């Protein structure tokens, strides 16, 4: 991307491939759920997007915001556990109306009362079966609740940070810093830069610590995190 990015400050900015790498949601699913298109970015008139997308194209390429990224993670949780896209589209639409937000999964209200909210949405829509509702509740219990603990919310009651390793660790995705790229919170250095330096130094942690003047603990967290994404 060569376009000036200043206007996207605070929203996060990822290519589809970057979003797929960070979120572990495939590029094909991202194109489909955000744009109703396939992995080539071709939009199908027969297929509807599941989620609203926040950003226009950048340099003629699809762009993913931080809030898009968080919403994609939730849809992936539910989809990977067998919920139909039809049910998810309805749930997103109804939840958006109830919360008055195009990004309902990013709302603090969804964090505090998401399970009841989804139950209300799905029970009041005749096109969604109780089997689907049971699946949704199961995903909340086993997957969504732990993920919610890794999210931090701002005063506007929307997700402001994602701590992928948990809030006790030093790695964060913050849309106001480095366009939302995974970074060391205290030092402000993107983890990918640290990892690339680690590889360039023939995997010498000491060299990375010396070059960036950071603690070994932080360097190791960044390296291990990037290794987990690449696995």
What is the fold's blueprint, element by element?
Layout lengths: L13 E2 H8 L3 H9 L27 E2 L1 H15 L4 H15 L8 H16 L6 H19 L2 E3 L5 E4 L8 E2 L10 E2 L6 H10 L4 H8 L3 H15 L1
Antiparallel strand pairs: 1-2, 3-4, 5-6
Helix pairs in contact: 2-3, 4-5, 5-6, 7-9
Structure description:
This protein has 231 residues and is mainly α. The chain folds into 2 domains: 8-148, no CATH class; 171-230, no CATH class. Helix content is 50%, strand content 6%. Strands 1-2 form a two-stranded antiparallel sheet. A two-stranded antiparallel ribbon has the order 3-4. A hairpin with a 5-residue loop joins β3 (151-153) and β4. The mean pLDDT is 87.
Give descriptors for this structure.
6% strand, two-stranded antiparallel ribbon, single chain, 6 strands, 2 domains, 231 residues
Please summarize what this structure is.
The chain is mainly alpha-helical and 231 residues long.
Measured between the Cα atoms of the first and last residue, the distance is: 26 Å
Helicity, in percent? 40-55%
Any idea how many domains?
2
Total helix count?
9
Q: Let me know the number of strands.
A: 6
- The whole-number mean of residue pLDDT values reads 87
Order of helices and strands: EHHEHHHHEEEEHHH
| Spatial order of the strands forming the largest sheet | 1-2
**Apparent shape:** elongated
Query: Nearest-angstrom radius of gyration?
Result: 19 Å
Would you identify the regions where 5 or more consecutive residues have pLDDT less than 50?
Answer: none
Question: Would you tell me the structural class of the helices and strands?
Answer: mainly alpha
Please give the largest β-sheet: 2 strands, antiparallel
What share of the residues does DSSP label as strand, in percent?
A: 5-15%
């Amino acid at each position: 991307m060569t376009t000036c990015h200043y206007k996207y400050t605070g929203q996060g900015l990822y290519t589809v491939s970057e979003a797929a790498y960070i979120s572990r949601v495939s590029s094909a699913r991202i194109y489909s759920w955000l744009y109703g298109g396939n992995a080539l970015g071709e939009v199908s008139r027969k297929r509807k997007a599941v989620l609203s997308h926040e950003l226009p194209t950048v340099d003629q390429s699809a762009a993913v915001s931080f809030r898009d990224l968080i919403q994609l993670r939730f849809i992936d949780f539910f989809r990977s556990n067998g919920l139909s896209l039809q049910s998810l589209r309805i749930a997103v639409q109804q939840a958006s109306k109830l919360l008055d937000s195009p990004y309902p999964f990013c709302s603090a209200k969804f964090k505090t009362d998401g399970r009841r909210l989804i139950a209300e949405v799905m029970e009041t829509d005749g096109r969604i079966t109780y089997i689907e509702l049971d699946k949704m509740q199961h995903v909340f219990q086993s997957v969504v609740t732990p993920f919610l603990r890794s999210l931090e919310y701002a005063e506007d009651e929307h997700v402001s940070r994602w701590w992928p390793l948990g809030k006790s660790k030093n790695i964060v995705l913050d849309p106001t810093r480095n366009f939302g790229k995974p970074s060391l919170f205290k030092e402000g250095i993107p983890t990918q830069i640290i990892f690339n330096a680690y590889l360039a130094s023939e995997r010498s942690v000491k060299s990375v610590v010396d070059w960036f003047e950071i603690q070994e603990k932080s360097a190791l967290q960044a390296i291990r995190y990037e290794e987990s994404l690449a696995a």
